[in-house]
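Now for today's protein:

——
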Amino acid sequence: YETTAKTFYIDIDPEELSEEMELVFTDMDALGSLLSDAAADEKSGIGMGSYYGSASDSLLILNSKMIIIFNDSTVIDGITCYAVDFFGGDRFGLKITNTWETASASAWADILTDLDDQGWIEEVSFEFVVSDLKKAYFLPNDITEKPDNEYYAGGHTHGYYERINRTYLVSGDLTWQMNNAHQFKAGAGFKTHTMDYKAYTVSVQQNLDWIPTIKTTESSFDNDSYDNWLTNAVSKLSLSSRNPKEAYAYLQDKIELTDMIVNIGLRYDYFNPNYFVPDDYRDPENPTYWLYTLANADSVRIDTFFQFSGEVTNFDKILDTLDANGEQWRDYNDFYVNTEAVHQLSPRIGVAYPITDKGIIHFSYGHFFQIPTFSYLYANPEMEISTASNESILGNAGLKPQKTVTYEIGLQQELTPDLGIEVIAFYKDFSGLISSDQFEKYNTVKYVVYSNRDYGDSRGITFSVNKRRTGLISASADYTYLMAQGNASNPLALFYANESDPPAEVTKKVIPLDWDQTHTVNLNVSLSDPGKWGISILTKYGSGLPYTPTYQGSNLDASNSDRKPDYFNVDVNMHKDVQIAGLHWTVFAKIYNALNIQNERRVFSDTGRATYSLIPTYTSDDGNIYGRHSLSDWLTRPTYFSSPRQFRIGISTSF
């Protein structure tokens, strides 16, 4: 099977982002009139495209240049004059901006007409680059310089990506009832993935003359691809895609004895990331450093971009190639090591023991194997590290699978023929959770790499009551008390802490995890006549999830030391069964959040509420200034609340 995620403009060909055009004038009187008209209309001129014929309808003029080509010579007052003496050559170029018409066009009209009268002008051409106004990528990139607590003033996000995952799976299972006491199950499977990924940014900015440009993966941190120069350079594992492999096998025996049932099994898991990691994390991208001399100079220089960008072109000779340690450069294969496959055996056992004819006690114990999300393994595919500290995150194909050990004991008891209860106590221990470690390069730049440092556990008890339908009514209810704690909830906690100024202190201690909801209650009541109609009401309550209180960006207490508001929701489902044209039809209506409660799912960390913040107490409101945003706009966050009441009505049939 295959999954694809992409943005609309991913198929852009860089050659199609803009188009070069040219207009040539040999009639200076006509050109002079055009320039004079352009100067008189400040809203439409040469730079704005109004005088480029068909180009002016839907194309934006991104870059314009006027080129005057002179005759080699002309006769003035009986004397032969040469262009090279008067103008230093046979042509002159002038860059045109979108304000050039009003400021200079009229003056140039006089100059060109005068020069033509003297016989100097052979032709005047306008060279320009255009982009289609109807396409979003002509807009400038995000205006990233903005005041705090305000929105971007304009621009457009030009980040595009494509991710294609292909998965091939072969699996099989076998069940064998050996005798009355033993039922064996066995199975095995193999899964391989082929993952392609590319991401780029269309840059539209002043230093590129506003021409839409897609930089190469080597020259831009914004442009990434699984098929890049690094994977091609490491020849021992040259991959244009990522190809992790998984396999499993299991054996289970269900033992049915006179007074108990035992399920015992063993599972084997295998995972191979099929990639490489840096041999030395103090130099993860391992660039070649070129030691060279400039032409006609005695100074020796070293440059790291020489190999890709060609920024240094006037070199005399290359003296040596070095690595980041200043030692002799080796082959790329010497800088990276293949990751090793991971194996795990996971024992599991479950026992159910009847204590009465209406009651059962059961317990289970098991080990579970969870492969890390692939994005943690292959992030930053070119292993690029910024020149500034605490700005770069490096994936780690050597991450180990996360391990969970679970313990559970429970009691089921029938109270009446239509009423039963169950009590379950559980404990789960998590190890090898995704975290991050900080490394420092030889040049003292710091960055983080995903690792398996975090741990945690959850424990709790669930009490549930179930009433089977008698007459028209059925119902169920459950209550869970939970404690989920660990040393961190976010794999990038260390990275975000180091981004602050000054860096926040990260202490490894047990804290509530993000999903630590102490109290949870579910109540479902149904009123139905099977085959005819039904109504059910599902009510959910949850105590507040943890958050970290802050003020002006600084933590006021330990991570996740306070709680968000409680959660309460009611959903209603209704249906009516009918027979039409010999078919069974179901007309249904669903009401989500029937009471239209605004549950505060996210909160401002300085108040613990979604409805207000303390930001206005220490921040000025510049909403009265043209082009600025008011604080009330900035602090209105619809996404902090649960969805409002929703109605869905439909009809279904089966045949």
About this structure: Residues 48-58 have pLDDT under 50 and may be disordered. The first strand starts at residue 2 and ends at 6.
